[in-house]
């Protein structure tokens, strides 16, 4: 009897549909959904009122965010996971939602639009040098968006340097 796992198309479908996860996260951040939920446990109707969206579409988004691990749901009420509360609630000093402006920017997305052609060329398909042009303002947005992620390591380093 073989102990080898059977071939599965799971990785193929997970990867082919990964854009759905990205779109849901982007929508939730733009709607301030994680901030609306905050530290509480609230219904889709309550979240919808806070973000200005219908209950049904809010529930669908919250259910998907639950399936992919950003929220938890119990008895029809949603709550943030510890990671979501820490990194996706605007009231958190470690808020990373602004990093999506860079990570999902049209310029960055365009650099992946025809990755096969990029590989064929051995260089970007974007004009000139793409995102690595000197003084590209895109990187200022990146730095601002990622700054909260560096807060904890910076504090740890500062603590180590105090004697």
Give a topology summary.
Blueprint: H1 10-16, H2 18-30, H3 33-37, E1 42-43, H4 44-51, H5 55-67, E2 71-74, E3 77-80, H6 82-88, H7 99-103, H8 106-110, H9 115-121, H10 138-161
Helix pairs in contact: 4-5
3D architecture notes:
- With 163 residues, the protein is mostly helical.
- It has two domains: 9-92, Arc Repressor Mutant, subunit A (Orthogonal Bundle), CATH 1.10.10; 98-163, no CATH class.
- The protein has helices spanning 10-16, 18-30, 33-37, 44-51, 55-67, 82-88, 99-103, 106-110, 115-121, 138-161, and strands at residues 42-43, 71-74, 77-80.
- The protein has a three-stranded antiparallel beta sheet with strand order 1-3-2.
- Helix 4 crosses helix 5 (55-67).
- The longest helix has 24 residues, at 138-161.
Structural class: mainly alpha
CATH T-level topology of the largest domain: Arc Repressor Mutant, subunit A
Name of the CATH architecture of the largest domain = Orthogonal Bundle
Radius of gyration: 20 Å
Order of neighbouring strands in the sheet with most strands: 1-3-2
What is the molecular shape?
globular
- Overall pLDDT confidence: 88
Domains, number? 2
List the uncertain runs. Answer: none
N- to C-terminal separation? Answer: 62 Å
Strand proportion: 5-15%
CATH superfamily of the largest domain: Winged helix-like DNA-binding domain superfamily/Winged helix DNA-binding domain
Largest sheet geometry? 3 strands, antiparallel
Indicate the CATH class of the largest domain.
Mainly Alpha
The number of E-state strands comes to 3
Helices and strands, in N-to-C order? HHHEHHEEHHHHH
**Number of helical regions:** 10
How much helix, percentage-wise, in residues? 55-70%
């Amino acid at each position: 009897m073989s102990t080898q796992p059977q071939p599965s198309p799971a990785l193929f479908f997970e990867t082919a549909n990964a854009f759905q996860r990205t779109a849901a996260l982007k929508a939730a951040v733009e709607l301030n959904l994680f901030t609306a939920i905050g530290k509480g446990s609230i219904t889709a109707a309550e979240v919808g009122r806070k973000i200005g969206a219908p209950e049904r579409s809010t529930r669908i988004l919250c259910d998907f965010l639950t399936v992919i691990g950003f929220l938890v749901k119990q008895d029809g009420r949603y709550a943030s996971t510890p990671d979501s509360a820490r990194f996706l609630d605007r009231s958190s000093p470690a808020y990373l939602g602004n990093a999506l402006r860079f990570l999902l920017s049209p310029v960055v997305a365009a650099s992946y639009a025809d990755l096969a052609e990029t590989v064929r060329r051995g260089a970007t398909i974007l004009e000139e040098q793409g995102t690595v042009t000197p003084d590209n303002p895109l990187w200022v947005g990146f730095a601002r968006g990622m700054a909260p992620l560096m807060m904890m390591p910076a504090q740890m380093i500062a603590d180590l340097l105090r004697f």
